[in-house]
Aldo/keto reductase (Hymenobacter taeanensis), 316 residues
Amino acid sequence: MQHRELGRSGLQIAPLVLGGNVFGWTADEATSFRILDAFVAGGGNTIDTADGYSVWVPGHVGGESETIIGKWLQQRGRRDDVIIATKVGWEVNPENKGLKKDYILRAVEGSLKRLQTDYIDLYQSHKDDPTTPVEETLEAYAQLVKEGKVRAIGASNFSAARLRESIEASAKHGFPRYESLQPLYNLYDRTEFEQDLLPLMQEQNIGVIPYYGLAAGFLTGKYRREEDLKKSARGGGVGQKYLNDKGLKILGALDAVSSRLQATQAQVALAWIMAQPGLTAPIASATSPEQVTELLKATELQLSPEDLSELGQASA
């Protein structure tokens, strides 16, 4: 599988990133291990998680996903074979949130312990913290890079203005710079990223690893009517946002292209992201090894100019 460089980080990643948000939530530990096995066996090499996964589940405290990944790394002996990306800054609890230096330096130790590793390949600011100067956050990352605990840093859910401010601060003070951005981006959710962030990504050669590449499962085609929303834990949110005229128009285009290519709608939706200029690799999660195998086939799919045009027009 052909790898792509993530910004100027030196990290070479496969064109599909495995999302770890489901580990310990809709995929138990044994299933998560099989998913991870299938992903690496299929040529994938980058796993994305966060210290906040999965605080939204009743009884969870955060770190459940990292803990499962750490156990898998140790039991399989695969640490050198994969790139581990995790995040800090989401509210794990009222005392543990944000991007202040002392908190980042404390939070990274928890992530390293749960992941059972002595370094994180890509450590990302999960979301902007407007109460903290960007210089303070970057100073913390500079210390972690110097100590060898972090190889490269990235941002997630940042505005173009705050990302540019951070890049300028890195250049001014000699801090590491954000080498990747994790934004919301898929065939349905395009406008904000393409208008505000994409020009900055291309100007600065920053990698892009978008989340919700399948729009919370909507672009797989399994949600087409109100009654379909009961199929999964995410159905309610999908219905509120995506089950409308625009969403159905996009599904129509996905149906047509996937039929021509004898592929699934999910594969086409991910291949469309991979084909966009400036996009490095979409993140997708799976709840079974079979889903992983299906999603990885997107990396082999070649969309023609006509395919891209049909999908682009339906989702514009």
About this structure: The mean pLDDT is 96. The chain has one domain: 4-216+267-302. The longest strand covers residues 150-156. Residues 245-261 form the longest helix (17 residues).
